[in-house]
Design brief:
Blueprint: E1 3-7, H1 13-23, E2 27-31, E3 44-46, H2 52-59, E4 64-67, H3 80-96, E5 101-105, H4 117-132, E6 136-141, E7 144-145, H5 151-161, E8 167-168, E9 174-175, E10 178-179, H6 180-192, E11 197-201, E12 207-208, H7 209-220, E13 228-229, H8 231-245, H9 252-259, H10 275-282, H11 293-298
Parallel strand pairs: 1-2, 1-4, 2-3, 4-5, 5-6, 6-11, 7-10, 8-13
Antiparallel strand pairs: 9-12
Helix pairs in contact: 1-6, 2-3, 3-4, 5-7, 7-10
The structure holds NADP nicotinamide-adenine-dinucleotide phosphate (NAP).
């Protein structure tokens, strides 16, 4: 049986990828700081800590390494520079012990977003992968939509609770979301390929942010007034809400990335499932609880699994697959 090591096997994207790997017969070992959900006991786990000897030990004997590690927000002493260093440590350890193939999960248009810390860091790690490995794939998702995600779930949370939704700069800028299940399939396909690849994980439909908000409204059964407001004002409006939520809802850089249309792919889309259809099927359970991202990664939820094993974006049971209430406020 072929062995894969993956970061974040009980987190968001990694959890869906781990389930897809199991379905395809891989032996899965994950590096994560979350506890193993009961239905994931076939996945072995070790701490995700950035110590070279530890990483070498955990990666030894793997045929494939899938790296999903990254940070969304610089916080608690972590910066995008430390995320770059940690990524290089992880990938370097895989190289040291001779892992056959590496799949690195990056972000769409990393090279076009180098005015933004998140994208600039991703671009540096992509360059490292290209320089250090002979057998690799770089997979670049746009916006991954699935159970218990942060952005779409929390937009719906706002839509459910407030009579209006101020749209930064009118929302004419476009995005190309992809379902979590399609993302997992593309990442595992990349792992099983033998070619060096740099591919986007993007869905079949491109829409403006305003159109996306309309889809989310339809999915959760509300109609809200959506006034256009200057971007700076939307961030200002969010400040007191963020203080109350004790979270960072949207950063200035994330808004700039949206406006630069970095979540739109320039490749033929590999995602086949309609995100709109997924949202229509799952909108009823979205946004019922706020997903507190700081708590998920730095606070009391940082050891809880993000998704239950059967979720993985497939939702065969029709549930949202989210961890039980408590992940949000
Ligand atoms: N979600 C999206 O819409 C999206 C879009 C484009 C690109 N991506 C990329 O896809 C990959 C997976 O994203 P995701 O949203 O699914 O991420 P995630 O599940 O939140 O985290 C992925 C991995 O990074 C680790 N991690 C995250 N924040 C951390 C922190 N502050 N300190 C230490 N470790 C941390 C997690 O550790 P634990 O295992 O302990 O949780 C997990 O192993 C990332 O490289 C991301 O940049 C995601």
């Amino acid at each position: 049986m072929k062995k894969v090591v993956i970061t974040g096997g009980f987190s968001y994207t990694g959890s869906a990828v781990a389930q897809e790997l199991l379905r395809r017969g891989w032996q899965v070992h994950t590096l994560t700081n979350r506890t193993t959900p009961p239905e994931c006991e076939s996945i072995s786990a070790a701490p995700l800590c950035f110590e070279r000897e530890h990483l070498r030990r955990e990666l030894a004997g793997a045929d494939l390494f899938i790296n999903t590690y990254w940070i969304r927000i610089p916080w608690g002493g972590q910066t995008f520079d430390t995320a770059v260093d940690n990524s290089k440590l992880l990938l370097g350890a895989a190289k040291d012990v001779g892992v056959d193939r590496v799949v690195h999960v990056s972000v769409s248009n990393a090279a076009q977003g180098t005015n933004l810390g998140y994208y600039a860091g991703k671009d540096r790690v992509e360059a490292f992968v290209r320089a250090e490995f002979d057998n690799y794939a770089i997979v670049r998702p746009t916006l991954v939509v699935g159970p218990n995600d942060v952005l779409s779930n929390n937009i719906v949370w706002f839509l459910r609770r407030f009579p209006f939704f101020p749209v930064p700069d009118g929302g004419g800028y476009r995005l190309q979301p992809i379902t979590l299940a399609d993302t997992a399939r593309i990442i595992v396909d990349a792992g099983e390929s033998k070619d060096n690849q740099q591919i986007d994980a993007a869905g079949p439909d491109v829409m403006s942010f305003r159109e996306y908000l309309l889809v989310l409204q339809k999915a959760c059964g509300v109609r809200r007034w959506m006034p256009a407001v200057p971007g700076w004002l939307s961030l200002l409006i969010l400040k007191p809400i963020e203080l109350l939520l004790r979270d960072i809802v949207l950063t200035k850089e994330e808004l700039l990335g949206l406006k630069q249309e970095l979540l739109v792919s320039k490749q033929v889309p590999l995602g086949t499932a309609s995100v709109e259809e997924w949202l229509m099927e799952n909108g009823g359970t979205m946004g019922c609880a706020y997903v507190n991202d700081l708590r998920r990664h730095f606070g009391r939820d940082s050891a809880r699994p993000v998704l239950t094993g059967n979720a993985a974006g497939q939702n065969q049971d029709g549930s949202d697959g989210a961890a039980p209430p408590g992940a949000g406020i």
